Amino acid sequence: MIKMARFYDLFQPQHYDVYLAIDRQTKTITGTTEIIGQAGQTKIAINQKYLKVKSVKADGENCPFEIDETSEAVWITLKKIGETKLTITYSAPLTDTMMGIYPSYYEVEGQKKQLIGTQFESTAARQAFPCVDEPEAKATFSLALKFDEHPGETVLANMPEIKVEDGTHYFAETKRMSTYLVAFAFGELQAKKTKTKSGVEIGVFATKAHQAKELEFPLEIAKKAIEFYENFYQTPYPLPHSWQLALPDFSAGAMENWGLVTYREAYLLLDPDNTSLRTKQVVATVITHELAHQWFGDLVTMKWWDDLWLNESFANMMEYVAVDAIKPEWNIWELFQVSEAPAALKRDATDGVQSVHVQVENPAEIDSIFDGAIVYAKGSRMLVMVRSLIGDAALRSGLKAYFAAHKYQNATGADLWKSLGQASGMNIGKIMNSWLEQPGYPVVSASVKNGHLKLQQQQFFIGEGQAVGRKWQLPLNCNYSAVPKILADQQVDLGDYAQLRQQAGEPFRLNVGNDSHFIVKYDDQLLQDILNQVSQLDNISQMQLLQDLSLLAEGQMISYAKIVPLLADFADSHSSLVISALYSVAGRLKKFVEPDSSEEQALRQLYQKLSSKQAQRLGWQAQKNESLDDQLSRPIVLSSALYAKDPQMMAIAHQLFQANRSELIHLPADIRFQVLRNEVENYGSLELTETLLTEYQQTADGSFKDDLSIALASAADPQQLERLIAKFQDVDTIKPQDLRSWFHGVLANPHGEQAAWDWLRAQWGWLEKKVGGDMEFATYITVISNVFRTRQRLAEFKDFFEPKLQTPGLTREIKMDIRTIASRVTLIESQQDEVNTAIAASL
Ligand SMILES: [Zn+2]
């Protein structure tokens, strides 16, 4: 890898005057950028990408310049070093890539409309204006915007507008900030606003395709989140306003631009009268994630992209801390346990995975380090470990000191450990570095040998992995008081087991609370001791038991056949956490059965056995005053009953569909997907496909859209699936941002797998052109690796992707995904027979 020069070493900007004129009709941008800064040498480089630079002046005089596409820069030759004012004029195309400055498309009452917005992280500010596009190059920005404006349009930016002159909108100078956080937007918008106790203006903005009431929930959460963070961080929100803007075309989930956070519509807006509890929870955590960044990421920013985790891991923990404070009745940490924890544990077990802290130089590779399961999920688990080690009082005072020391500047991981270490009196850096710098995590084997209870840690792999003797500093969180807090060695002898067991009076358990990033393999004796009292375990422990066992089975350390008979013990739980874990394990059995085989039939019977009692209890209609657990469990249980082909449940779902045919959106949101899917799968027709596609195209409700798309992809008739694939490239029906989910849906359906795979291979060039510049592009490969399960598919996958190994940003993903598929193929080959025998025996 070529070591790229940091342009900040050559020129340090202090202030930008950015003037942009945008013409939506001709799709052009013309701009003038003035940068005042310090030149360290006479040859300097300013980032640019796709800009047609017309002139470069230094202190008013034209100077020679050279465009360098490889380093995405314009190289400028100055006459002197020291303070310099650069003036660069240029033009650029307005493109549909969801990066840089780009239009979003939508319709209001059949009329096509556009909304212009921005997405600059990680390296696309340079597509909008020339800049030193590195997080460390913080400066102040004065933005001036002109566009082909018509009455009724709203213009938003990081800071408030201060004046309009000759049709140009001028915005207040920003605080010192990084380029990737600059943002603006304009178009026909509706808004809802309020103020925090401390006087910060909070606003939610959306197109007029939405109902006004969809802005209420996010407004409440955003206001409460800012108030929560001001208190928790003991540091005021630094800007006059906090705008939340929903963009119809948006590649990621949301983006923390300082003062102007942008969101995918489905992650901000929701109908307060008909949205499932789970969707509300997810939307709330997305908002609190972005608002956590307003301090952690925006006020204090990582020095370079290798410390991306510092932003993301932290925001990913704080989103739960904040929602837990705002909506304590939700028990939001349970969502953490069923989403972040398993995602991290699965991906981090594949050899070749990146560490949380990861070296990165090339701009094309920066996007590829945004690995959701690692930088977000694993990183947040690491910080949850820190939080449980030092407690909230030390966390808060450490953070306060961290913000005070680094505000409007940059920081590294070491700076955070220093602040938290001083606040807690613990050497946090030493404990955390083993997690930060090493990929993977350990399995701790707990066993009784010669009467002694012994622990041993070794790296856990799913699939082939090369053990290189890694060790971690493990917070053991054991329920036996005689056990040390941290395991730092490879192994430890805890002494006489019989004595320990008697003293404690309960089965030996590690990682109580499931906050530490490791799994446990108990020997038969210890496991049996736990299983004998399984009903007395708390919900998290029950979930953890299922989760750890299934990971051990994925890693071939035990057989899935051993887990199958245990499932029934959890089936009647009233905890949504346990129900969610149960069916996630049951779902992993699906890979062992061939579609439409007698084995599949047996698996459906197992599902019937597990779900029928609960399906009767919960029913299709929410009960008055029912628990939140029941609300969350209902969709999972009903989905399982429908997979089981429970005739009574299928009939009710069919009736519900027929009765609500004319207004499907009004079906209760937490069972709507199940009703739609049942209809498509069991009573489908081409006509129904067309009807639902039209509904999909016309609705602005994000969760209804999701329900429709996943339901449509479950058709049993290949012809209906072909019809969907034919729409993949029709951007008026399926927005590029949603295509991956559509593709995955059809691919994961055995009746559509071949056609979807053929489509992807044939249209790869189109896809690359359409979304290749997008941060999420590599995840098209990830979703394929989550589906393929045969040797033939593995060979086809290799044939197609191995020649693309050199594509920057795809290398790691392709290598890891080959391992993922290979390990699944091996697992199926070695366990298939015994698993199916166990399923048959459990009926
Ligand atoms: Zn984030």
Give a written overview of the molecule.
The protein has 843 residues and is α+β, with helices and mostly antiparallel strands. Helix content is 42%, strand content 20%. It contains 27 helices and 28 strands. The strands form eight sheets. Strands 5-4-8-2-1-11-14-13 form an eight-stranded mixed sheet, with no helix packed on it. It has a five-stranded mixed sheet with strand order 16-17-18-20-19, covered by helices on one side. Strands 27-24-23-28 form a four-stranded mixed sheet. Helix 1 packs across helix 2 (277-293), helix 18 packs parallel to helix 20 (702-712) and helix 22 (736-748) packs across helix 23. It is globular. It starts with 10 loop residues before the first strand and ends with a helix. The model has no long low-confidence stretch (mean pLDDT 96). Zinc ion binds at residues 256, 289, 293, 312, 315.
> Level of helix content?
40-55%
Mass-distribution shape: globular
What's the total count of β strands? 28
* Major pleated sheet: 8 strands, mixed
User: How much of the polypeptide forms β-strand, as a percent range?
Assistant: 15-25%
Q: Could you say which structural class the secondary elements and strand pairing correspond to?
A: alpha+beta
Task: Give the C-alpha Rg.
Answer: 27 Å
